[in-house]
Amino acid sequence: MRLRVPLIALLFLVAAGAAGAGLLLKEARESTTRGTGAPRDPAPPNTRAVSIGGTSAKDYDPLGDDVEHPERLRNAVDQDSGTTWITETYSTGELQKAGVGLYVDAKPGVAADTLQIRSEEAGWTAEIYGARSGPPESLEGEGWTRVGGGEVRSRRERFPLETNDTRYRFYLVWITKLPPEEQKVEIQDLTLYERKPAAR
User: How far apart are CA 119 and CA 102, in angstroms?
Assistant: First the structure.
């Protein structure tokens, strides 16, 4: 009996240590994929920033080679103005296709109110789409729904989104025109905002 009590205590300590280590690993993994840092800019009135994962941004080039600097995608959501995601370089100064872009995964879905784009260069245009599932492989047919867009006229451009309370999981920035006399588009950060819940 005297030997059993220390053995049981030892087994309990080993099990507790394993559980603690598992919890720490889970938290480390989540901190890698969630929580991209607090936005640098104050939110628009009555809204709050949407928390998206650090690996939530994906390039979208269905009309080309399907690749637009995937190694730099995290830069578009890391809330660090010193890092950027860029399109490929188009030497003619024109896309030579209908568009190219990137989307963010706002899993499980959000009826976003505003999309903010930070970009060093102004003068380029983009359409913004939402999709409830997928993401759809093409803009043609059903899947993507246009919810906003226009010209990026300043280094911090905010586009109001018309989601009609639809909770879209994916939000696509579809670049349709390069900045004047430029060969690519650089995006420092994308930030989604949603309406704050009404006070009870």
Answer: 14
